[in-house]
Amino acid sequence: MAALETLIEALRRLPGVGQKSAQRMAYHLLQHDREGAQVLSRALAGAASDIGHCERCHTFSEAALCPICADEQRDARLLCVVETPADQAALERTGSFRGYYFVLLGRVSPLDGIGARQIGAEQLLARAQDGRVEEVILATSFTAEGEATAHVLGEALRSRQLRSTRLARGVPVGSELEYVDLGTIAHALVDRR
Ligand SMILES: [Zn+2]
């Protein structure tokens, strides 16, 4: 059955989904939830075609500016740098940050040939020099690559006389921000240095 094979192969693209889970999902949808399969298919097609990137912070957005960048009540002196839209969402859920964000296009990984340029460092520097930003908070993850990213960006900001701070320790070493509990992130934000 070609259509079934195609579905299983497509499901395997999801992170953490292997052959067995993909098969189980496919059989479940076909056997028990055809309507769910239609809902999923429409949601995927809609999201993939309608969601782009905010032209200012690069997070996911359906409009040119995301709701956060479009909100003029936020504190323009603070710019928080995160690795992914998921990390930005995690920080935003803490409710303890009132500045703006800049979402990197990944993190530096010298072995894969991914340096400052590939993750959008130039756009970040331009954004940080808008005349309003006074502090750039480097909220990359506490993995080796996240630390390397914070280091590279911190140096680049310092060379342009821009002040940068790092989330405080307390976020467990090796952590991806999106999986850390909100209270811990909120504390790390308040105790940044
Ligand atoms: Zn934005």
Dominant shape: elongated
Rg (C-alpha, Å): 20 Å
Which series of helices and strands comes N to C?
HHHEEHEHEHEHEH
Q: What is the number of helical segments per DSSP (H or I, 4+ residues)?
A: 8
What percentage of residues falls in helices of 4 or more residues?
40-55%
Distance between the termini: 58 Å
Q: Which whole number gives the mean pLDDT?
A: 90
Please count the beta strands (DSSP E, at least 2 residues each). 6
What does this protein look like?
This protein is α/β, with parallel strands linked by helices and 193 residues long. 45% of the residues lie in helices and 10% in strands. It is built from eight helices and six strands. It has helices at 2-11, 19-32, 34-50, 67-70, 85-94, 121-128, 144-158, 182-190, and strands at residues 52-53, 60-61, 78-82, 100-103, 135-138, 164-166. Strands 4-3-5-6 form a four-stranded parallel beta sheet. The protein has a two-stranded antiparallel ribbon with strand order 1-2. The termini are far apart. The relative contact order is 0.11. The model has no long low-confidence stretch (mean pLDDT 90). The chain binds zinc ion. Zinc ion is lined by residues 54, 56-57, 59, 65-66, 68-69. Residues 54, 56-57, 59, 65-66, 68-69 line the site of zinc ion.
Write a concise synopsis of the structure shown.
With 193 residues, this protein is of the alpha/beta class.
Write the layout of secondary structure elements.
Blueprint: H1 2-11, H2 19-32, H3 34-50, E1 52-53, E2 60-61, H4 67-70, E3 78-82, H5 85-94, E4 100-103, H6 121-128, E5 135-138, H7 144-158, E6 164-166, H8 182-190
Parallel strand pairs: 3-4, 3-5, 5-6
Antiparallel strand pairs: 1-2
The structure holds zinc ion.
